[in-house]
Amino acid sequence: MSRLSVNVDHVATVRQARLGIEPDPVMAAMLAETAGADGITVHLREDRRHIQDRDLQILRKVIKTRLNLEMAATGEMVDTALEVKPDMVTLVPEKRQELTTEGGLDVKNNFDSLKYVVSRLMDAGISVNLFVDPSPDAVKTCHRIGSGGIEIHTGRYAEAQNVSTRASEFKRVHDAAILSKRLGLKTHAGHGLDYRNIRELAAMKEFEEFAIGFSIIARSLYTGIHEAVREMKRLIEEARIAAPER
Ligand code: PXP
Q1: Is the pLDDT of residue 99 over 80?
Q2: Which CATH code for domain 3-242?
Q3: What are 3-42's pLDDT values in tens digits?
Q4: Among residues 3, 32, 84, 156, which is most buried (max CB within 10 A)?
């Protein structure tokens, strides 16, 4: 059954709007865990626009599942990861002006630097995923870099405005996941996943984990975090049970 890692960045976004102490992403993470989340994801951005160093340090101490740190492959972030020791690092590209992570890593043009960062993190016992667009070339390059796993960027699939684009974007994600598994990579997915579009992906046995933030935190405003996480977990589990064997 695929795992659900709940991204709590958006709780920190609300807190930072007033630069106060509430709402606390640490509290949100703990509630998500009690509702059945299999992991917690945070993105420590270079500009610290939402998650702060303090959040990461406390999360490392209090969460009981798996902590996934999304970060840029910079020297400062690698030092932080080596100090905090999350269970997993997901390397993502980062631009200061973007609203959220806009595309996957350019693994081809950053091959050597990514390989160096991946090996430093893996040598410290941290598992590493590379966040990439669903392209066969990117998946094969990740395999050569030796990351051990990938997170497939599902943003274009999630944002598709019509049926045919959605079908073609789904096929790209689907084919990339199958290739990734065939190469022996841990295969995760994330970005823009919500209560509607998760079913199609969750039906695929290739996906070991989904990282989902915005839709869960948005829904939690109405239902509370517990209910929002439980409902996403239920959809993921039911989609797999209902999926025909391939
Ligand atoms: N995975 C990665 C690598 C991301 O950068 C993000 C956004 O921070 C997510 C997953 C979660 O995306 P969303 O908030 O749209 O669910």
Answers
A1: no
A2: 3.20.20.70
A3: 999 999 999 999 999 999 999 999 999 999 999 999 999 9
A4: 32
Residue 203 and residue 23: Cα distance in Å, rounded?
34
Extended strands (E) in 63-213: 66-71, 88-91, 127-132, 148-153, 186-190, 209-212
- Domain residue ranges of the chain, discontinuous segments joined by +: 3-242
In the block, tokens 């070339």 appear at 137
Q: Does pTM top 0.90 for this prediction?
A: yes
The DSSP secondary structure of 199-223, one letter per residue, reads HHHHT-TT--EEEE-HHHHHHHHHH
Ligand 1 pocket test, candidate residues 43, 50, 154, 217, most atoms within 8 A of CB: 43
130 - beta bridge partners? Answer: 91, 150
Structure token digits, residue 137:
């070339």
User: Beta strands of 79-147 (E only): which ranges?
Assistant: 88-91, 127-132
Phi first, then psi, for residue 57 (nearest 5°) are -65, -40
pLDDT tens string 148-181: 999 999 999 999 999 999 999 999 999 999 999 9
Cα(212) to ligand 1 centroid in Å equals 6
